[in-house]
Amino acid sequence: xxxxxxxxxxxxxxxxxxxxxxxxxxxxxxxxxxxxxxxxxxxxxxxxxxxxxxxxxxxxxxxxxxxxxxxxxxxxxxxxxxxxxxxxxxxxxxxxxxxxxxxxxxxxxxxxxxxxxxxxxxxxxxxxxxxxxxxxxxxxxxxxxx
Length: 146
Prior knowledge:
The protein is α+β, with helices and mostly antiparallel strands. The protein has a single domain, classed as Roll (Nuclear Transport Factor 2, Chain: A). The chain is built from 5 helices and 4 strands, in the order αααααββββ. Strands 1-2-3-4 form a 4-stranded antiparallel sheet, covered by helices on one side. The longest helix is centred in the middle third of the chain and has 18 residues, at 75-92. It starts with a helix and ends with a strand.
């Protein structure tokens, strides 16, 4: 299954020639696309009125909110961040379903938000449980995904 980035650049993929793609390659592709998604900022979801449902579910909202003004030690803000990450990943990474984001406990001096993404990877007839670890640097807003 083509990722958004693969569809945009229209690069030939192994499955285009009928070959099967190893699970680790699919997982790596999803990980890279998650990193692109989580390193893109979008205020579209906040700015587009609720009456424009199709717009709110489109590429206009690709990316995450800017969390730099959120308090990563505040339980309320942490829950808002977690829910926002979950919704964004579920909406824009269609190869994943049943997306769950779990934030790691925050250390006082750490300015990074560490979290885990658990989901089911759609492999056509089968699904595979996958897990990605991510770190969002609050000051630089750079996210890495493993």
